[in-house]
Amino acid sequence: MNTKSAAVATGEARASRRVASAMLIGTTLEWYDFFLYGTAAALIFNKQFFPSLSPAAGTLAAFSTFAVGFVARPLGGLVFGHYGDRIGRRNTLIVSLLMMGIASTLIGVVPNYASIGVWAPVLLVLLRVVQGIGLGGEGAGATLMSMEHAPANKRNLYAGFPQMGTPAGLVLANVVFLTTNAFMPPGAFDAWGWRIPFLLSAVLVAVGLAIRLHVEESPSFSRVVSQHGVQTFPLREAMRVGVGRMALTLGLMIANSAVAYVFMVFTLSYGTKQLDYDRSFLIVCVSVAAVIWFTTIPFWTGVADRSGRRVMFVGGSIALLVWCLVFLPLLGTGSVVAALIAFLGMGVIVPITHSVQGAIIADTFPAAVRYSGTSLILQVGAILGGGLAPIISSAIVGESGGVAGVTVYLVMVCLLSLGSAMALFRRIEPTDSRASSLPADAPTGVRS
């Protein structure tokens, strides 16, 4: 019996790792598409789709199309969350991957402003909306699939695998962007070569689809079905955890999102146009930081499983606030060494809170309504944090000519998230600092 039990445990462990790996690969491909757009918005789209505007106005317009994807994400979160709680996580994740890949591929063939005039940015925005809807269904679903397949004592670790897809997708997008640029004649990349990384999405989505088709449904959702616990309106039931707790959970994730998009996206435009850094150098800096981000997530999620996520998250929030005070001043020195240090610091600090925020949000809701509730928090937080950060930062620089105001903005956002986290953790029962007060499969109607 012991041998049989060991074999079953080994098989379950392999299945959990297979699901986590599949979620990591899928989220990497979706974030590749999303970040590829962000890089192009910072460096290319102002000239291709808004040539009649001034450089500053064109950059702001390009970042506005980038933000449209964030505005669309709550719609995707609501739709995919609803059906993910009603028909299952697996099928909705397959659809989200297809939407993201098809939209990205079509961006690669959209004519520019010189060819079709105003219809060029219109088509760009429409495809960005489709991207946002697809990603809105991905973030929560992948985290839930991985976490709900996880062993009980490794929920943070497994929930962190989809979080690793964010920096992995960023690195993949930047590597493809840089490689394509490096092998093209001068001027050719800006003219038409930028389309190649988008067209590559067609190949990548086929790979991701083949992997996801072999993933089994979440055990937690299967139990909900077997117990006849599927909700007709899961989002309405998810709200039963309480508006106060949901607001604090939303608040704690905003800083990480805002800071990450300033250092990943805004600095590419600001650094090349205002500080005269080489474009390739900045992309390499962001990519190196993302590699550190990717590789340290398993360490931080392991710490959370062993020692509790609360102290780690609060400490990470404080570190993020401190680094925001020095990040842009270091970049503003014009020194490549100082710039590299600034980006490396972000690579070390950002993953501390990012690694567990998905698990914190998911643990807020019982299994029957977890997809809907988690999607709502993640996507609204993404708008308030990452979606607005490049636009706000660009507007501040355009108005003042400097980035001191951007630093103040980031510090204020960090203070908001730090205060939200501390207030939230005081509200949650302290019986287990590694998880929330809601058990993994708590029935709907449980309030914190």
Structural class assignment = mainly alpha
SSE pattern: HHHHHHHHHHHHHHHHHHH
Distance between the termini: 41 Å
How many individual domains?
Answer: 1
Largest sheet: none
What is the number of strand segments? 0
Describe the fold and architecture.
- The chain is built from 19 helices and no strands.
- With 448 residues, it is mainly α.
- Helix 15 runs antiparallel to helix 16.
Could you outline the blueprint of secondary structure elements for this entry?
Elements: H1 2-43, H2 45-49, H3 55-86, H4 89-107, H5 113-116, H6 119-148, H7 155-182, H8 188-193, H9 195-199, H10 201-212, H11 219-226, H12 234-238, H13 243-273, H14 279-307, H15 309-332, H16 336-362, H17 370-387, H18 389-400, H19 404-427
Helix pairs in contact: 1-3, 1-4, 1-6, 1-7, 1-10, 1-13, 3-4, 3-6, 3-17, 3-18, 4-6, 4-10, 6-7, 6-17, 7-14, 7-16, 13-14, 13-15, 13-16, 13-17, 13-18, 13-19, 14-16, 15-16, 15-19
Protein name: MFS transporter
Organism: Gordonia hydrophobica
Membrane topology: Multi-pass membrane protein
